[in-house]
Amino acid sequence: MMDKTININISGTLFQIDEEAFRILRDYLLAINNRFRNVQGGLETIEDIESRIAEIFQSQKGLAGVITKENVEAMIAIIGKPEDFDHGDYEAVPPPYTSQKKRMYRNPEDKIISGVSSGIGAYLNTDPVIFRVLFVLFTVFFGTGFLLYIILWIALPEAKSDSQKREMYGDNFHSARSQNLSTDKINNVNGSVNTPSYSSSSSVGNAFNEIFRAIGRVCYIILRIFLIIIGVSLVLTGFLAILSFVLVFIFHYPGTFSTHEFGTNFVYIPDFLNYIVTPSAAPWIIALTTIAFILPMLALIYWGVKMIFWFRAKDGVVSLAGFVIWVLSVAALSIILFNEGISFAETGKISSEKIFTHTPDTLYIKAGKKVSDLKFDKELSLTHEAYTVFINEEKKEIYIRPHLNVNNFWDNVVKVEVRKRSTGRTQFEAMKKAEGLSYNFDITGDTLILDEYFEIPSGRKWSADNVSIDLSIPVGTILKLDSASENLLHAYSGYDNDDNTFSPGWEYRNRIWTLTDEGIKPLSTHSSK
């Protein structure tokens, strides 16, 4: 049966030691302490002996081995038994720790919540219970004690190493250590050798400390519950955000969201990106956008997990590297988008118009080229279908649906004006792009023929291109549209009979419309031929 092993810390070095060897070592250290603790310079001698013990154990078994009874006996044979020492034969002079090197730390060995009060007490050589009472009083009466405590908790490092503890106690390090050396030298829970805590409280102070410890435990439990709730929220937020991003932009799963609620079908935006920016820039924009979005979400998940399980990790380098990568990604993405955005800096417009030779009482509107006759792979709707883009991947062509506005014209004349708009780096470039948009319309008797889409020249990028058709007719004119041309209607076409008001909409099919002083409204639901 394998002997029980105990972890111990000797002079800042961790060892594993079996139970029998631990008992021998404990008795030896206590005997050394009893021999030197009341001698001038005795504490320095004890520290020197501990350092020598650690060196011998390292040379015998190494840090990965288990210290056995034979190792301890061999160490005692090298150093000598306590009764063999003459007080004048073993000198150890500690390094000079003056008050100039004294620093304030959080004391982990005498803490109720984080060791702030104990650290201040050690630094000022004062009973820490005084500062605990002050923090409570300032919290209750002024509301600043809690905030100050949190600030000190964040600002003050924890005294973990022996050198930090020396800096925390200063010249009082050895006196503070000697107060509890006999009781704290060997921890009876895990066998670790510790520097004793600073403990000089009176009986009343100890009573206060016990009260504070009880309150601290309750506060700690409440804080843990609060942090767990926040941690779970962060993990769920980060996970769901990443999952949604992957489903929408990688797997094109439109059912994940009701995209039309936002007025944008963003499922195909990455595909449409190739037609907006320079083809070589599109992969970089997608990759950098992914990094800029995913990294913060991963950070949220990681921080949430740390809050839930309350663990510490040496993640400073990884966190810094992730932050640097994120900053560089955002900076590079901003530069690329700015460079691409320059091509949308100026707007150019051109227009053409035709006038009917007579003013018909009934005006027929029919579609020339229809979307139903197009071959396209993707459809992208923006702003509640008022702007719809059709993409032909094979031919790399873009078709866009224009919109039709019906206005009142007081001169008893029917007029059609087609306005084309594009953007460019300069206004001249924008004008040339607008001229290149392919859209046809014609007038035949009392019939207006409109294409249901306009086309961007093959090979040219999308430049916020737009075509609008303004139809001006007298009040009372009846409009009969076929189903294709009615898709172009972009006006106040919804009519509410209850409150006699108009609302925007163009979801009607095969209606007969009429123009009133308030705008157009459906006259009947009969099909137009």
Please tell me about this protein's structure:
By secondary structure, the chain is of the alpha+beta class. The protein has helices at 19-36, 42-61, 69-79, 116-124, 128-141, 145-155, 162-169, 173-179, 181-184, 203-249, 269-272, 281-309, 316-341, 427-436, 483-486; strands spanning 5-10, 13-18, 66-67, 346-355, 362-367, 378-382, 387-392, 397-400, 403-408, 415-424, 441-444, 447-450, 454-455, 466-473, 478-481, 494-496, 501-503, 512-516, 519-524. It has 4 domains: 5-84, no CATH class; 99-188 and 196-201, no CATH class; 228-342, no CATH class; 345-524, no CATH class. The protein contains 15 helices and 19 strands. It has a 6-stranded mixed sheet with strand order 11-12-5-15-18-19. A 4-stranded mixed sheet has the order 4-10-14-9, with helices on one face. Strands 6-7-8-13 form a 4-stranded antiparallel sheet, with no helix packed on it. α1 runs antiparallel to α2 and α10 packs antiparallel against α12 (281-309).
